[in-house]
Design brief:
The protein has 255 residues and is an all-alpha fold. Helix content is 80%, strand content 0%.
Length: 255
């Protein structure tokens, strides 16, 4: 493989790690570029290989958040435990069927999400205290299963969906939502990686340099998000959601 391809992939991994650490959605950069630069590889091999840098960047971002943000470990452990098999099942299904039929639905959901986030200025600006512990646990179970399966089956935008779920359903603010999303996203990546390793779909010569680049981007992005706070993350979130819209819009109408 030409060295310039590895360099371009590493640059994409760095940018993906940076964006993903702040509000999720790094796969919007990393996945399309990986598919473009590695056209001769099976799609499942490309996706499987890219899961390694995603896991690496998310790990470094999660470490930064853990040092500064309080975590509800009871909720997180439940969610991470359920997210692993959910993502494994999603990735298993991906090896048998196409996920293109989901994209028109996601286009509508993301459009509504972008409009709502823009119009509701206080969305994700404070922690909502009125949700009971029992309700939070039930909501956490549902989020883990649904978004975990989505990550394994489709992938791009998973971090953003976790952030939205933590804010809209769990009552978190943007900073705590981003922090907790990283931990659960680690579990979904791990579940998918287990499947792709068993299937022999990971090319380590590509995955390792990309993982280093993604980790550096994740470390920088997390520190920036922690320092800048909720309003900065909200703006970044809107940018990522619009980017996701463009990506799925292209897939639906032009691809």
């Amino acid at each position: 493989m030409e060295s310039y391809i590895i360099i371009l992939l590493c640059l994409a991994a760095f940018a993906a790690g940076f964006i993903d650490a702040i509000v999720g959605g790094g796969g919007l950069i990393q996945t399309p570029i990986g598919l473009i630069l590695l056209p001769n590889l099976p799609v499942a091999t490309v996706i499987g290989t890219l899961k390694i840098p995603s896991f690496s960047g998310t790990s470094f971002a999660a470490y930064q958040y853990l040092k500064k943000v309080d975590m509800n470990w009871k909720l997180l452990l439940i969610m991470m435990f359920l997210a692993v098999p959910s993502a494994f099942l999603g990735s298993t299904l991906l090896t048998y069927v196409s996920n293109d039929f989901m994209k028109p639905l996601l286009l509508v959901v993301l459009s509504l999400l972008a409009i709502y986030t823009y119009a509701k200025k206080n969305f994700g600006q404070h922690v909502e205290r009125s949700i009971s512990a029992t309700t939070q646990i039930l909501n956490a179970i549902g989020i883990s299963i649904v978004v975990g399966f989505y990550d394994g089956f489709i992938g791009p935008g998973t971090g953003s969906f976790f952030v939205v779920a933590f804010i809209a359903i769990m009552g978190f603010d943007f900073l705590h939502a981003s922090a907790n999303a990283k931990m659960v996203n680690l579990a979904t990546n791990f579940g998918s990686i287990c499947l792709f390793i068993l299937k022999g779909k990971i090319i380590w010569a590509i995955a390792i340099p990309m993982a280093i680049s993604n980790a550096i981007g994740g470390w920088i992005g997390a520190k920036l998000a922690i320092n800048k706070g909720n309003n900065f993350i909200r703006i970044f979130f809107l940018i990522v959601v619009i980017g996701t819209l463009i990506r799925f819009g292209y897939d639906v109408f032009y691809k």
